[in-house]
Amino acid sequence: MLLLALETSCDETAAAVVRDGREVLSNIISSQIDLHAIYGGVVPELASRRHLEVINPLVDEALQQAGVCLADLEGVAVTSGPGLTGALLVGVSFAKAFAYALGIPFIGVHHIEAHIQAIRLEQDVLYPFLGAAVSGGHTHLYRVDGIGSYRLLGRTIDDAAGEAFDKVAKMLGLGYPGGPIIDKLAAGHDAGNLKFPRPLLNRDNHDFSFSGMKTAVLNYIQKLPQPLNEQQIGQVASAFQEAVVDVLTIKILRAAEQEALERVVVAGGVACNSGLRRRFAELTAVGTTRVFFPRPLLCADNAAMIAVAADYYLSHGKESGFDLNAVSSWPLEQVNLG
Ligand code: KG4
Ligand code: ZN
Questions:
Q1: Where are the beta strands (DSSP E) in the chain?
Q2: Candidate from 165, 277, 329 with most ligand 1 atoms within 8 A of CB, to mutate
Q3: Model's pTM, two decimal places?
Q4: CATH of domain 2-117+298-335
Q5: Is 75 in the pocket of ligand 1 (CB under 6 A)?
Q6: How many A from CA of 69 to the centre of ligand 1?
Q7: 126-293 domain in CATH 3.30.420.40?
Q8: pLDDT tens digits, one per residue of 211-249
């Protein structure tokens, strides 16, 4: 099927044209980073307004870049949750109106299902696999048995990993979003003997906690003479990233082993992290576990990823009705019940 896919769950307006849930003909992202940066985080009301402003021209551009016209489209895919309600509603309302006008089906897709299935735009990873969704809102591990089939294995009990990156960056006065900035700084600095706690690392479950790690960073920073110099900021960034990478890699690989899953897919914005990718490669250089990452453009929020599950659902006769609503909170395990 030839689908138009839309993503407006947070601070990126994204539109893509994808054939058969696999071939990306266009994948355009309009970032709102500049809009939210001065507030140090996403302001929901501003996000919705910007989505509304850019969605029409963005869709035109996506169609143009893909070289397709309206009549070629066979369906519309849209993120319907979880995310910011007002932001999601822009995409959902657009998708409904667009599908209605063209007389084609549309479907609401779970944002985290899209992140995890984004890997299929690049390669076929055999089921079952362990899907690790590591983003600004999620640090959740699932056993994935197919599209629509997820069992929760563990999750963060407080902050998501990306949220911790963003908050620590804010403490260091580094700007928003913090993940890519800390990643870059960590690459150029050594943690030395600075070591932050690894919460829940030795706990016998697959849950995570990043709030205590973040507080430990704050306590450390506050004890230093202010303002911090570049070397100190770099060292903190590096030591913090080390702690996050340690916890994520060790716990994800342990969960895979305990669940007898030989394949792991790491997805979401934090999966762009170069230290995380490197450590996974080192830890799996020997042994049978294989770790897959979509390329960075497909790890962060984008619309092409929305088309993967949507194509599957639509071609299996499942579609949304005009009563589709945006859902801010939606457990992935319930994705196939609706
Ligand atoms: O998946 P995503 O684009 O949006 C959500 O669904 O949340 O993830 C955004 C999160 C932000 O917290 C951002 O700081 C983090 O991903 N992130 C990174 C990197 N790139 C983005 N975290 C660590 N290292 C990176 N290179
Ligand atoms: Zn996301």
A1: 2-7, 12-19, 23-31, 75-81, 106-110, 129-134, 139-146, 149-155, 263-267, 290-292
A2: 165
A3: 0.96
A4: 3.30.420.40
A5: no
A6: 33
A7: yes
A8: 999 999 999 999 999 999 999 999 999 999 999 999 999
